[in-house]
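Ligand: pyridoxal-5'-phosphate. Inputs:
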Amino acid sequence: MARVYNFSAGPATLPEPVLKQAASEMLDYQGTGMSVMEMSHRSAAFKGIIETAEADLRELMGIPDNYKVMFLQGGDSLLFATVFMNLAPNKKADYIVTGNWSNKAVKEAEILGDAKVVATSKDKNFSYIPDCSDLDIRDDASYVYICQNETVHGNQFHTLPNTKGHVLVADQSSMFLSEPVDVKQYGCIHAGVQKNVGPAGVQIAIVREDLVPEDMPGVPTMLRFKTHIDKGSLYNTPPCYGIYICGLVFKWIKELGGLEVMKERNVKKATLLYDYLDSSKLFKPTVDPKDRSLMNVDFVTGDDDMDKKFVAEATEAGLSNLKGHRSIGGMRASIYNAMPYEGVQALVEFMDKFEKENA
Ligand SMILES: *Cc1c(COP(=O)(O)O)cnc(C)c1O
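Predicted complex:
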């Protein structure tokens, strides 16, 4: 059985060495005589797993001591609500909307309070990042929110917005650990791990401790960040197996040299693909060059039937999940950390061949 090159946006491809290690430890995790799926979350073995995972993540990202790390559940979509509940005590926050996910985040905040869109690229179907150097941010906005890499629309903030001294909150789901970030620039970073880091079912939130409210009257226990921080993400049963896989991925990244090396690899892959797209007569990239995502590469032929034909033939050739998101059509190649350079090379060679055959 051969593995394909899997360009899925998420859940997405994982590093093969990680999958192999997980397989080898499936029946007996390090002499415990049981799988990680079968052990108590209060056991010494699992305590070792979660504590090592957090320590490795802190080391990889250089997370300062005054930031707390949470391993959560409920989908990153739940964080659209809980970020607002926890970090906007005055129920006021400003949002930059650059695609599907930041749009969902602001809609969720609107249910709970006063959320204002201070910039958007909706006018051109989110094909660029708007100028965020001098935004009309409300003085009493609790934070400014961005989705730093829009998974569906394929754009990315390569410089952070000027928040004029306000706290910055970023959804980094589809770029988490893809490049170095300066955690100090943020009040909160959150990410669903199923894009770049692990299996579905785990979200990681990193939050500056002084922003976490002590008391939240009327808010259910599970929705308070403090609950999870105080208990080291073990207030209730966490997604144990997913956290274990994330931990293996952290080790894999560390062994390869950390986030600088991830970025180098990711730039090299994205450059190969975008350079081809820019030279192609058949395929066109959809995002402004300066705002292109290193992770999610969107492109079209401009002809729906041709797009379909391409996706079908690519799948036949072992290049899977290239169909664009249902909301925008076309194609999308997600080239996360675990996608090898050879996978992108194979894709570009196939596209070139397809272009010649369909000229
Ligand atoms: C996938 C994704 C989400 C939502 O994640 P769920 O875990 O499905 O709720 C949020 N933000 C971004 C940027 C995503 O890519």
